[in-house]
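User: What would this chain look like folded?
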Amino acid sequence: MGFGQGYTPQESAPQLPEGEYKAQIRGAQFGQLTDGKSYFDVFLNIKDMNGNSYEGFKPDTKRYFDRPLYPQDVPASAQMAGKTLQDMQVSWDRQITSFFDAFGIQRGDWNTENWRGKVGCINVKKDKSNPSYMVILPDAQKRQQLQQAGAHQQAPGGQQLSTPGQQYQQQGYSEQYAPPANPGFDDTIPF
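Assistant: Here's the prediction, encoded as structure tokens.
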């Protein structure tokens, strides 16, 4: 028996082009690496803003590591950049708040069953540290803009066609997907 016995060549999954997408959470799970680091993975069905599906394209999963609690949780590269544990915690809190808001998940709801089927907006961009990989950036601001655009549609005579959240209901989503009116944080922080 030799190394690689039974190998069958497989094409790698195509990469999503950079851009804005709608994403639906198809599931999520918590896990732990062998070094003890906890994380959760979010699995997504991705469509472009016109509704074209990107099934089988990568990335369709986003991993989030647990909030740093101790000074030893701060990576050496972050320490060399002058970041403290408190800096890392604030950054993590912003990232997770952006995730919750982008998918209309109640902030702090860690029950992943409640996440299933939630729809949000994401940006897919090249990873600055490794250009051959793409990163997913949840976009609460874009989601809010889409919601507000629906709220401002007017019928002839000035009658309002939709109220906040109604645009999502018309698209088969519920009003619970609407993010708070003012998330109060900077959505441009990469993670």
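Confidence is low (pLDDT under 50) at residues 153-191. If you want, I can go into more detail on any region.
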